[in-house]
Task: inverse folding
């Protein structure tokens, strides 16, 4: 399917196409709205998605290839246009068209005890846990904090606060929220499609969509009437309306083609394999046993779920989303081996990160009513739970970060931005010949996103200023490796005395 050029308007989030057999979500068509409704504020367009994979990266495969000349653009900030650089080997050619719409950030460190992912919760999707006692100290995930804010949702009627999907199955990551309830993570494409569409179709408790027009043989074969086909009479009436402009008619037709294409693929996927388990909501603080879906068609299934998520964001079912990407454990922990570095790069480039490029490309194909793309109006945070993982095994230093979109002009795009100190360095233990340069707390990235949505520190801080975990701010940190402790000593002795306080956004990159 080609580009979907769908114009949407945030003031008509609950505009529905009503038919005798179905109630279907519409793209947001300006010609159907009163003129005064077009005076939308920029804040109405902002959305965020969090795409997270586990176990960190080998930084030389993540950063741009070859020598990079960085220019100082602000105190403590250096940058270079991505258009002049070759992306690292983790990123395939599918990322090349996105270079003007993304930013790569370097030099962001976790100020927390080194463990498995205990700042993943701060990157979206809920609390980690299961096998790391340090995780119990993590705060609410950023997507949950945003979902609770009236700045994001003045009203939550008929909304899904956060669209969360785990197309590769449930693992112990993203299990807790505040150490207790288990978060719902959808792993079955058809159930996820139905949840997104029916939330708009049926206010209140979703009910099964009818399947008229199927023969007995089709029903026995598991066929399902497409939701677009169930509303053909209403769609025909809409297209013949004198109020609908020619441009909006093309927009609506493109959107319905997109929905038809997505549901056709999802139905075919469901027909090819049995449904997968959906993670339940529970008040039990113990994570359910992890499961992994069958490997066949995993990448196609993940792309389908990415499309469903984009459809939900475009129609206003939600303004927030979380997708758990595929990760690989064993190769990351042996990245001192050159062959394993290549294998890990191949794995992420072909099996996991293509979902991120597909997701952002699909968002880029939707035009919203402020004239910008869905991606332009959003922030898509692509990150991992660890930093340079081989440095003393579990390491929170130099967390890999790519951000797609500008949140309607509040974030710089098309740049490789380094917050790393140009001279101060730490030599990782167990990895001779390598150096790491301290930069800024990873938390500053999250503060930037929260502020971009208009939240004040009073709305996102916990018992102390800032957002997230700062347990090792003073350099003393039980459970840290020697390398991480050496880096944290820099923050205690040098960074925080010169940058008092925690509640800081990233300079230059954040333009709010």
Result:
């Amino acid at each position: 399917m080609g580009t979907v050029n769908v114009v949407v308007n945030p003031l008509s989030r609950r505009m529905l196409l009503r038919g005798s057999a179905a109630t279907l979500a519409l793209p947001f068509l300006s010609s159907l709205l009163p003129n005064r409704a077009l005076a939308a504020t920029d804040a109405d367009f902002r959305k965020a998605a969090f795409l997270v994979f586990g176990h960190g990266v080998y930084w030389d495969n993540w950063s741009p290839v070859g020598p990079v000349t960085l220019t100082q653009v602000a105190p403590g900030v250096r940058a270079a246009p991505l258009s002049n650089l070759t992306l690292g080997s983790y990123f395939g050619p599918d990322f090349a068209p996105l270079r003007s719409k993304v930013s790569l950030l370097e030099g962001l460190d976790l100020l927390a005890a080194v463990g498995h992912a205990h700042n993943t919760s701060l990157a979206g999707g809920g609390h980690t846990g299961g096998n790391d006692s340090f995780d119990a100290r993590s705060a609410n995930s950023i997507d949950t904090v945003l979902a609770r804010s009236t700045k994001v949702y003045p009203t939550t009627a008929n909304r899904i606060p956060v669209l969360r999907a785990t197309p590769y199955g449930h693992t112990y990551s993203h299990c807790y929220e505040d150490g207790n309830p288990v978060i719902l993570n959808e792993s079955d494409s058809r159930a996820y499609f139905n949840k997104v569409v029916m939330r708009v179709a049926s206010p209140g408790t979703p009910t099964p969509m009818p399947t008229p027009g199927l023969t007995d043989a089709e029903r026995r074969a598991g066929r399902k009437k497409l939701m677009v086909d169930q509303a053909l009479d209403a769609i025909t009436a809409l297209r013949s309306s004198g109020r609908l402009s020619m441009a909006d008619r093309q927009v609506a037709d493109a959107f319905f083609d997109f929905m038809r294409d997505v549901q056709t693929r999802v139905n075919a996927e469901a027909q090819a394999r049995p449904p997968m388990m959906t993670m339940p909501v529970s008040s039990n603080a113990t994570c359910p046993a992890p499961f992994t879906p069958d490997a066949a068609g995993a990448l196609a299934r993940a792309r389908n779920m990415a499309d469903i998520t984009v459809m939900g964001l475009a129609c206003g079912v939600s303004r927030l989303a979380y997708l758990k990407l595929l990760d690989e454990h064993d190769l990351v922990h042996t990245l001192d081996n050159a062959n394993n570095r290549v294998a890990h790069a191949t794995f992420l480039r072909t099996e996991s990160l293509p979902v991120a490029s597909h997701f952002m490309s699909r968002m880029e194909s939707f035009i919203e009513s402020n004239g910008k793309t869905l991606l332009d109006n959003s922030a898509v945070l692509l990150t991992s739970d660890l930093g340079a993982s081989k440095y003393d095994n579990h390491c929170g230093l130099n967390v890999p970060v790519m951000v797609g979109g500008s949140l309607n002009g509040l974030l710089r795009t098309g740049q490789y931005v380094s917050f790393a100190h140009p001279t101060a360095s730490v030599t990782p233990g167990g990895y001779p010949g390598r150096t790491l340069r301290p930069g800024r707390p990873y938390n500053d990235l999250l503060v930037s996103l929260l502020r971009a949505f208009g939240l004040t520190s009073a709305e996102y801080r916990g018992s102390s200023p800032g957002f997230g975990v700062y347990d090792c701010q003073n350099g003393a940190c039980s459970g840290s490796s020697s390398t991480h402790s050496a880096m944290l000593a820099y923050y205690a002795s040098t960074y925080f005395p010169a940058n008092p306080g925690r509640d800081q956004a990233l300079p230059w990159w954040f333009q709010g």
Q: What stands out?
A: The first helix runs from residue 59 to 62.
